[in-house]
Description:
Elements: H1 8-27, H2 29-32, E1 37-47, H3 50-56, E2 64-75, E3 81-96, E4 105-121, E5 128-143, E6 146-161, E7 167-190, E8 193-216
Antiparallel strand pairs: 1-2, 1-8, 2-3, 3-4, 4-5, 5-6, 6-7, 7-8
Amino acid sequence: MPGPPARTRPRAASCVAGIAVAACLLWWPGTIQAQTVEVTPFVGYRFGGGFFERLSGQPVDLDGAPAVGAVVNVRFLEPDLFAEALFTHQEARLTVPGGLFAAPANWRMTVDHWQGGGLREIGASRRVRPFLTGLLGLTRYAAEGDNEVRFTVGAGGGVKLMPLRSFGLRLDGRLFATFADLWGRAIACSPGVCLVALDADIVWQAEFSAGLVVAFP
């Protein structure tokens, strides 16, 4: 599978830089003064083997693989609303069958999601805090020196269990929709107006995780 054209890589780098700048602004002391910051490293499992099939170019008998990552939340002025930044990394190793004159190959494949958005706690008590999340960002998937970056939408929900003010457990379920390919075609045109049909190749993944919440008031 050929890598993305060289001209697309600066755009992807600019998007990553923009997310990094936004995250830095969230951490600026004047923004988070007297507000809560929560850091949650987590482990989990991500289902959906679409990326592995795209990378190998053939059907793969692998539905998912373990995932690790971290999420950072910064509370807004509203007590139940947080900004959220998420990174989650998935890695799988599999054997790709060889051809007529080629031996089978062992490939290491990775899928990374970098996202930012918001989290809202719903009817939360001090110790049990259900929540919903909405996120936008980028997905990078790579194997054997080849990688691509695509736009991703994410959503999810879960619960924070906080027996202590500064420590607790976070349980998450997330759904990622990555636009692997997007193209359009004109169906009909009149002077100054065209009706365009969009076709999208979307890769779906679901992730379930558990993590330790460390809160800084």
